[in-house]
Design a protein that fits this description.
The complex is a heterodimer of chains A (1127) and B (142).
Chain A lengths: L4 E6 L11 H9 L4 E7 L5 H14 L3 E6 L2 H14 L4 H4 E5 L1 H5 L5 H19 L8 E4 L4 E4 L3 H12 L4 E4 L7 H5 L2 E2 L4 E2 H14 L3 E4 L2 E9 L2 E8 L13 H5 L3 E3 L8 E3 L1 E2 L11 E2 L6 H5 L6 H9 L3 H11 L3 H7 L3 H5 L11 H10 L19 E5 L3 H12 L3 E5 L8 H4 L8 H13 L3 E3 L20 E4 L5 E2 L15 H9 L9 E5 L3 H12 L4 E5 L11 H9 L3 E3 L2 E9 L2 E15 L5 E5 L5 E4 L2 E4 L3 E2 L33 E3 L2 H4 L4 H20 L52 H8 L13 H5 L12 E7 L1 E4 L3 E3 L16 E3 H8 L26 E8 L14 H16 L4 E6 L9 H10 L3 E4 L2 E6 L5 E7 L4 E7 L1 E6 L1 E3 L3 H8 L2 E2 L5 E2 L15 E3 L9 H21 L1 E4 L4 E3 L9 H5 ...
Chain B lengths: L7 E6 L3 H10 L8 E6 L7 H9 L4 E6 L10 H17 L8 E5 L5 H18 L7 H5 L1
Parallel strand pairs in B: 1-2, 1-3, 3-4
Helix pairs in contact in B: 1-4
The chains are: A alpha/beta (1127), B alpha/beta (142).
Chain lengths: 1127, 142
C-alpha cells in the first residue's frame, strides 16, 4: 500500500482534551489502514507541533497528514504550509478535522465528544487518500488601495498608505471628509480639540498627491478578487466646479433652507452649502433632487419651487423673473389657471396643497410693470422676422420667447385688442383688463410688434406673409366659434352663445341680457356667463348641466362663488328644445338625465330618463358647451391640412404644419384647452421656429420635461398648517359691478404660504447663485460621474451611527426641548456649531434658538447600550465622553453648575482614562450609580430625572434644566448593503465581522478586504486609529508582496465526459463557463471561476467538478461518517 | 435497549453556516453530537448525489445549511440550492424519505444560537421518526 498517513490530534491546552479523550482517538486512528504514525500533542499549531509533522513526513516518508484540532478556518493554512515545507503538495496531502468548535466545545459528555471525534477523524482519514495535488495560480497585485469612508479611520489608513508612495482612492459619501470625530468638540481624556488634531489630517488627505479624494461618492459595485478588484464608484454631482473658492456668496443668496446634517439639525443651512467652515474639500455642494411634481406637472414647466422660495424670502422681483423664464403672463395666469400643479403638490401628505396659482399672482402684483426692467437681449438682424397670427396666449407666448431670443415677431390680430380669449372670454371681475394689458405692454417692450384689426383670409392669405419678408409663420387663432346645441329653435331671438356673450360684454358693446337666464353647460365659460348675467341685471340665473356636480369641469371655487352670488345649478338636466313665442325665447324644454357607463373622457355618460321632460321658464338662453376652430382665415392658402374636427394638422413634436415654415399651436391645434397649455405650445413653437430659421433639425434633442420621483423626504418635523385663504370681495359689493372678486394675498399671508413649500427638489433652481458666484463655479447641469477604478486591496471604514433615542419615549427625546443627544451636545460645544461653542439651553418654543446656560444638567449613560431591548453590547466610549461633558459644563457654565452622571458601571479602561475620571470627580461632578428610568417635564421646562441610586438603594428624583442622553453607537442602517457589495460578514450586533476576534481583527472572509474603525464595532479614537494603521499595514503587505496565490479549489469540466448540455453555463453567476463550439463541450475559464460549484451541483453527466470537493472526496467523507450505520 | 440515536449528515457552506458552527463552538453552545458537518464552499455545490448517498448509507437525516437569500458569498448559489432541494425533496418522498428528514436552513455566520436550535430540533424530530427506512438498503446498493 503506497499511502502512508500521519495522524495528529491536538489537546489545544485543555480546550479539546478536557472533553475528548485524545489518546483514545489517536489509538483508534493508529488502527486505521495506511496510518503509520498517530500522535497526540499539547499544541499542534505551535512551532514544535508543526516541527513534529515536518520531521515525521521526512523521516517516515508520510504521504498524507491529518490534524484533528480547531476549525480549519483557523489553522488549515498553518498546517498546509508545514506540509509544503516538508515537500508535500498540501492539497493532496493534508486534511484538517475540527474536534474543538464542532466537538469538545459543543458536546456535553466526554463519551459522546470522544465518539464524535472518532467519527469525524474516520471521515477525514477516508477523505484524505482521495485528494489530489493542486497548484494555486499566482496573480500580480495592483498596488492601489480603495478606502471606503473618510472618517478618522479612513483618513488615517489613506494617509499611511499614501506615505508609502502607493495610490489611494478615498471614497466618502458626504461632501466632506472628517466623519464623526470632526463633529466633536474636545476629545477625552486629554481634552485636545477634535478640530485641532483632526483638521490637519483632513487637509493632508486633501493635498496628498497620492490620495485621490472622491467625496459625495459611493461605491456601487465591486468585482474581481484579491489583488485585482474592479470598483465602480458613483460620484454624485455637487453642481459646483473645482474652481469654487469657498467664499460663500452663493449661500447668502440661496432662498432654500434645510437643517444642516453636520450639526444634526441644530442649525439651518442653505441648499447650496458647505458642511462646516473647515470642510475638505472646501467646495460648496448643492443638495438637489428630481424637480418637484408641481414643476413636472405644469404644462408651461414653470419653476414653481423656485418662485415660491423667492416669495418666502421676500424677493418678489426675482421671483417674477423665475416665472417669466417660461411664462410671460404671470398676473393673468395667476388669476385664471386651473393649477394642475396643486393637485400633485406633496404638501398634501402633510395637510393641503400649496396655493401655487395665487402665489404666482402675488408675485406679479408686487412689481411695477411700467418700470420693470426688460432683460438684455442680443438682437438678431432686422430681417429675422416671424409673423404670428392671433394675439391669444399661444401667440403672445411664441412672440415673447422669440423676442427673448432676439428675433423680430409681429402679431396680427383680428380683434381691436390683444389677449384673445383672455380678454374676450374672461370677465373683468376675474381678470381685470389692466392686468392683462400691463403684461402685454411688457411683451411689447421686448420688441414684439402687435398689429390689431388685421383680418387674415382671402385678401391677405397666410402664405402671403413669406412674400412680405417674414421667414416663418405661427398660427394661433384659437377656438373662437361656439358649439351648437343642435336643438329645435336654436336660432330664436334670445339665444346667445356663451363666448359671444362674454366677448360682447368684454368689448363694452351693448348686449341685452334677459330677466330670467338659462345657461347650458358646466364649464368655466358657463360659470362666467352666468355670473356676468347676474351683473348685467338678470333677476334669475339658472345653470343647466347634464351630469352631476362631481363631473363639472369648472373649478370648484368658481362654482362656489357663483352659488354665493345666487346662481342656481340644475344638475342632470339637458335641453331638448327652445320654446318660443313670436320667434323669441319663452322657455327651454329640458329632460332629466341619469349617469350610465363612463365614456371616452372617463366621465359617466348621461342618459335621458324617459318621460321626464319639464320646462324652464326663461327669456334668454346662453349655451356654453364648448368651442371649435373657425378655419376661414386659411382661405387663399393651399397646403395646410385640417382634421375632421376642424383643428389643424401639425407634427405633435415640432408643431410644424403640412406647409413648411408654418407652425401652429394653441386651441386651434389641440382643440379648446386652458391658457397655460397655450403658453406651453408657445414655448415649443419658439424652439421649432428658431431651429427652422437656423436650418437645424426640428425634432432632435428637444429639451425634455423633467421626470423622476426621487424627491426630498418630507421632514417629520413639518407641522400641519392651513392653506392661506384668499380674501374676497363680499357678495353684496360685487353684484352690480366688475370689481375684482379675489383680492390677492397680503404680504405676510403670501410669505407664510410660500414657507409651507416642502422643497421637493432640494435646490429650487432659482439660479441666483450663478449670478452671485464671481468664480463662475456653479453648474446646474452637472451630472453624476461614474468611474471604474482598479485596486488591489480595499479598506472598509464606514463608521457607525449614533442611535436615535426617539423610540425610548420614557426619555422624551424630540418632545422635551432640553433633552439632547450626545452628538447634539458636541455640536453645541463646538465652535462651529449653532451656539459657537456656548453651552446653552434651547428656547422652549423655537428649537433653533438657544437662550442661557443651564444651572443643572443630568448626563444619562447607556442609552441603548447594555440594554436587552436595544443593544446588548457596551458602546465603550460613553462613560468617557460623559465625563468629558461633565468637565466641559463645569468649565464653560461655571463651577456652580450642578452635573449629575447616571451610570451603571464606569468603564475607564484606556490610557489616562481612570486618571481623567478621578480628575472630573474632584471637580464636584455627582456620580449616581443607577440607570435613569424616565424624564418628565413641567410647564417651565424643568426636567425631572427619575432613577434608582443602587448604592443607597433609594429611588431619587433630580430636577435639572438640561439632560444629555449618551446614545449607543450602532451599525449603519445600510451595513447589510455594504456587506453584500464587498462580500464580508455581519455579526449579531450588526457591525462587520472580523475574521478572528483576536488574531485577525482587521481581516474579513474576502481576502484583500480589510476593516478599520467603528464599522467593525464601537471604539474610541485611539483604537480606531490603531486599527486603521493595522488595516493599512495589511493592504501594504499585500502590495509589497506583489503577487497573490489564488486557492486552486475551482471548477473544472472533464472534456471526456461533458456532453455539451450547457446547463452549467446558465447557472454560473460569474459567466466563467463558455461553450466550445468546435469541441461541443463547456469549458471553465479558471481566471474568472470562484469555485462556488453551481456547475458541479447541476451537471447531469458528472463532468463538472470543483477541485478538492469532488464526488469521490465527499463520498469518502460521507462513508466515513456513516460507517458504523447500516447493516 | 438504548435510545435510538439518529445520524445526521450536515452540508454547511464555508461562509455562513460553517462559520456559525464555529461561532456556536466559541460561544460554547452545546448541541447533540448526532449532527456531523461536512464542509462545502457553497450550498450551490451540494450535488443531489451527496444527499442520496448519505441516505443510502444510513443517514437518518440530511441538513443543508447556507447563507440567507441575498447574502450568498457567490452571489446566488444558495438560491440554486433551494431549487435543487425542492426537486430532490419530491424525489426522496417516493423512496420513503419525507421532508422531515431532509432540511434546508439559512443560518448566517452570526447565528450560532440558531445553529444550536436547528441541531436540537432536527435531532429531536428524527428521534420521534425513528430510523430511516433506507438504513438497511445502503449495504445492498453499494
Amino acid at each position: 500500500m503506497s499511502e502512508r498517513i500521519g495522524f495528529y490530534i491536538c489537546h489545544c491546552g485543555i480546550n479539546i482534551a478536557y472533553r475528548v479523550r485524545v489518546q483514545e482517538v489517536a489509538e483508534y486512528a493508529a488502527t486505521f489502514p495506511g496510518v503509520v504514525v498517530s500522535k497526540d500533542y499539547l499544541f499542534m499549531c505551535s512551532d514544535p507541533g508543526q516541527d513534529l509533522i515536518e520531521k515525521d513526513i521526512k523521516n517516515l516518508g508520510l504521504t498524507h497528514v491529518i490534524v484533528a484540532s480547531c476549525s480549519p478556518r483557523m489553522h488549515e493554512k498553518t498546517f498546509r504550509a508545514a506540509c509544503q515545507r516538508a515537500g508535500l503538495n498540501p492539497y493532496r496531502a493534508f486534511h484538517m478535522v475540527c474536534v474543538r468548535e464542532h466537538g469538545s466545545w459543543v458536546t456535553e459528555s466526554e463519551d459522546e465528544a470522544t465518539a464524535k471525534a472518532i467519527t469525524l477523524v474516520r471521515a477525514g482519514l477516508m477523505r484524505v487518500t482521495n485528494q489530489v495535488a493542486l497548484f494555486p495560480s499566482k496573480f500580480s497585485v495592483n498596488p492601489n488601495t480603495l478606502v471606503v469612508g473618510g472618517g478618522i479611520a479612513g483618513m488615517q489608513a489613506a494617509l499611511d498608505i499614501a506615505s508609502s508612495g502607493n495610490q489611494v482612492y478615498l471614497v466618502e459619501r458626504q461632501p466632506t471628509v472628517g466623519g464623526h470625530m470632526l463633529q466633536y468638540d474636545k476629545t477625552f481624556p486629554t481634552l485636545d480639540c477634535a478640530a485641532c488634531i483632526g483638521t490637519p489630517k483632513m487637509v493632508a488627505v486633501g493635498q496628498d498627491k497620492n490620495i485621490n479624494l472622491m467625496t459625495n461618492s459611493e461605491v456601487e459595485s465591486v468585482s474581481g478578487f484579491v489583488g485585482n478588484f474592479k470598483v465602480n464608484v458613483n460620484q454624485r454631482s455637487r453642481y459646483v466646479k473645482t474652481n469654487c473658492t469657498g467664499c460663500g456668496d452663493c449661500a447668502k443668496v440661496c432662498p432654500v433652507e434645510a437643517p444642516n446634517e453636520w450639526d444634526v439639525g441644530t442649525k439651518m443651512r442653505k441648499a447650496i452649502y458647505i458642511s462646516f467652515p473647515q470642510a475638505v474639500p472646501v467646495r460648496y455642494a448643492i443638495e438637489k433632487y428630481d424637480r418637484g411634481p408641481c414643476v413636472q406637472t405644469c404644462p408651461a414647466g414653470i419653476n414653481i419651487q423656485g418662485f415660491v422660495a423667492l416669495i418666502k424670502d421676500g424677493r418678489y422681483q426675482e421671483s417674477l423673473k423665475v416665472i417669466m423664464e417660461t411664462m410671460p403672463l404671470p398676473g393673468t395666469l395667476g388669476r385664471i389657471c386651473p393649477a394642475p400643479c396643486e393637485a400633485q403638490c406633496r404638501r398634501r401628505e402633510v395637510d393641503s396643497p400649496l396655493a401655487v396659482c395665487q402665489l404666482k399672482r402675488f408675485a406679479a402684483d408686487q412689481v411695477d410693470w411700467d418700470t420693470l426692467p426688460a432683460p438684455e437681449i442680443e438682437k438678431k438682424p432686422e430681417t429675422e422676422k416671424v409673423a404670428v397670427i392671433g394675439a391669444g396666449p399661444a401667440g403672445l407666448s411664441t412672440a415673447y420667447f422669440l423676442a427673448k431670443k432676439g428675433y423680430h415677431p409681429t402679431i396680427f390680430e383680428r380683434a381691436p385688442f390683444a389677449g384673445g380669449m383672455l380678454r374676450a372670454g374672461i370677465p373683468d371681475y376675474r381678470l381685470p383688463p389692466a392686468v392683462l394689458e400691463q403684461e402685454i405692454n411688457y411683451i411689447k417692450k421686448l420688441g414684439v410688434d402687435i398689429q390689431l384689426n388685421v383680418e387674415i383670409g382671402q385678401d391677405r392669405p397666410v402664405a402671403g406673409f413669406f412674400d412680405e419678408g417674414f421667414k416663418a409663420v405661427y398660427l394661433a387663432v384659437g377656438a373662437q366659434s361656439s358649439m351648437k346645441l343642435k336643438i329645435e329653435n336654436e336660432d330664436a331671438v334670445g339665444v346667445m352663445h356663451g363666448i359671444d356673450y362674454l366677448g360682447l360684454l368684454n368689448r363694452r358693446q351693448p348686449v341685452k341680457t334677459g330677466n330670467k337666464v338659462a345657461v347650458v353647460g358646466g364649464g368655466d365659460v358657463a360659470i362666467d356667463a352666468a355670473r356676468e348675467a347676474i351683473r348685467q341685471g338678470a333677476s334669475e340665473v339658472k345653470m343647466l348641466y347634464r351630469r352631476s356636480r362631481e363631473e363639472m369641469p369648472a373649478s370648484k371655487h368658481e362654482i362656489q362663488a357663483a352659488e354665493e352670488e345666487g346662481i342656481k345649478i340644475e344638475l342632470l338636466t339637458a335641453p331638448v328644445s327652445v320654446l318660443t313665442t313670436d320667434g323669441k325665447v319663452s322657455g327651454l324644454r329640458c329632460i332629466k338625465m341619469e349617469l350610465g357607463e363612463p365614456d371616452a373622457s372617463g366621465r359617466r355618460r348621461p342618459v335621458p330618463v324617459a318621460d321626464s321632460e319639464f320646462d324652464v321658464d326663461c327669456d334668454m338662453i346662453i349655451p356654453a358647451i364648448g368651442q371649435r376652430v373657425n378655419s376661414s382665415f386659411l382661405e387663399g392658402t393651399e397646403g395646410i391640412e385640417l382634421t375632421r374636427w376642424g383643428t389643424i394638422v401639425a407634427d405633435p413634436v415640432t408643431y410644424q404644419t403640412t406647409f413648411p415654415g408654418i407652425f401652429a399651436g394653441g386651441d386651434m391645434f389641440t382643440g379648446p384647452s386652458v391658457a397655460v397649455a397655450a403658453v406651453a405650445a408657445g414655448q415649443q413653437a419658439a424652439i421649432s421656429i428658431e431651429r427652422y430659421l437656423l436650418g437645424e433639425d426640428l425634432a432632435e434633442n428637444r429639451p425634455s420635461k423633467p421626470t423622476g420621483n426621487n424627491w426630498k423626504a418630507i421632514s417629520k418635523k413639518v407641522k400641519a398648517s392651513s392653506r392661506a385663504k384668499m380674501p374676497i370681495l363680499p357678495v353684496a359689493e360685487r353684484l352690480d359691478n366688475y370689481k375684482e372678486v379675489e383680492l390677492g394675498f397680503d404680504e405676510a399671508q403670501a410669505r407664510a404660504e410660500a414657507a409651507r413649500c416642502v422643497d421637493c427638489g432640494g435646490c429650487c433652481e432659482c439660479k441666483l447663485c450663478i449670478e452671485a458666484c464671481k468664480a463662475g463655479a456653479i453648474d446646474h447641469e452637472m451630472t453624476d460621474k461614474k468611474e471604474t477604478i482598479d485596486v488591489g486591496s480595499i479598506i472598509i471604514a464606514t463608521g457607525f451611527d449614533p442611535m436615535n433615542p426617539v423610540k425610548m419615549t420614557q426619555y422624551g427625546y424630540g418632545k422635551y426641548r432640553n433633552v439632547f443627544t450626545n452628538i447634539e451636545f458636541e455640536r453645541l460645544s463646538n465652535a462651529t456649531g449653532p451656539t459657537a461653542g456656548k453651552l446653552l439651553k434651547r428656547d422652549l418654543k423655537d428649537p433653533l434658538k438657544f437662550t442661557e446656560a443651564p444651572k443643572s444638567v443630568a448626563i444619562l449613560h447607556c442609552i441603548g447600550s447594555r440594554d436587552q431591548n436595544y443593544h446588548e453590547y457596551c458602546s465603550r466610549t460613553c462613560c468617557m465622553y460623559a465625563l468629558k461633558y461633565a468637565h466641559l459644563l463645569k468649565d464653560k457654565c461655571g463651577h456652580d453648575t450642578q452635573v449629575y452622571n447616571f451610570y451603571i458601571d464606569m468603564r475607564c479602561f484606556g490610557k489616562g482614562y481612570e486618571e481623567f475620571y478621578k480628575k472630573v470627580q474632584a471637580e464636584g461632578v455627582k456620580m449616581i450609580r443607577g440607570k435613569a428610568g424616565s424624564i418628565t417635564e413641567d410647564e417651565n421646562g424643568i426636567l425631572t430625572v427619575k432613577g434608582e441610586d443602587t448604592l443607597s438603594g433609594r429611588l431619587i428624583e433630580v430636577p435639572v434644566e438640561m439632560v444629555i442622553l449618551c446614545t449607543a453607537m450602532e451599525a449603519r442602517p445600510d451595513a447589510p448593503d455594504v456587506m453584500r457589495k464587498f462580500g464580508i460578514g455581519i455579526g449579531q450586533d450588526g457591525f462587520f465581522q472580523e475574521s478572528h476576534p483576536k488574531l485577525a481583527p482587521v481581516s474579513t472572509p474576502t481576502s484583500g478586504v480589510f476593516l478599520a474603525g467603528a464599522c467593525q464595532g464601537p471604539k474610541d479614537i485611539p483604537d480606531t486609529v490603531a486599527q486603521a494603521k493595522g488595516a493599512a499595514a495589511e493592504a501594504l503587505a499585500l502590495t509589497s508582496a506583489g503577487q497573490v496565490e489564488i486557492p486552486p479549489m475551482i471548477s473544472s469540466i472533464d472534456p471526456d465526459i461533458c456532453v455539451g448540455c450547457q446547463l452549467c453555463i446558465g447557472l454560473c453567476a460569474y459567466s466563467a463557463i463558455e461553450f466550445n463550439r468546435y469541441a461541443g463541450i463547456s469549458e471553465v475559464n479558471s481566471a474568472i471561476c470562484k469555485g462556488c460549484g453551481s456547475c458541479s451541483g447541476i451537471c447531469p453527466s458528472g463532468a463538472a467538478k470543483v477541485r478538492h470537493f469532488t464526488d469521490k472526496q465527499i463520498f469518502a467523507e460521507i462513508d466515513g461518517l456513516l460507517l458504523s450505520q447500516g447493516a | 435497549m438504548s435510545e435510538f440515536e439518529p445520524q445526521i449528515v450536515a452540508f454547511f457552506c464555508n461562509w455562513c453556516t460553517f462559520t456559525a458552527a464555529d461561532l456556536a463552538g466559541t460561544s460554547r453552545l452545546s448541541y447533540p453530537p448526532n449532527l456531523k458537518i461536512i464542509r462545502v464552499m457553497c450550498t450551490g455545490m451540494v450535488d443531489p448525489k451527496f444527499v442520496i448517498k448519505a441516505f443510502l448509507h444510513g443517514a437518518d437525516g440530511v441538513l443543508i445549511g447556507g447563507c440567507w437569500p441575498g447574502d450568498c458569498h457567490y452571489i446566488n448559489g444558495n438560491l440554486k440550492a433551494r431549487r435543487r432541494v425542492a426537486n430532490l425533496t419530491e424525489v426522496l418522498k417516493q423512496y420513503g424519505i419525507g421532508e422531515d428528514r431532509f432540511w434546508l436552513r439559512w443560518i448566517a455566520a452570526s447565528e450560532g444560537t440558531m445553529l444550536q436550535e436547528v441541531a436540537k430540533d432536527m435531532t429531536e424530530k428524527l428521534k420521534q421518526l425513528g430510523p430511516s427506512p433506507l438504513r438497511n438498503l445502503g449495504q445492498i446498493a453499494v
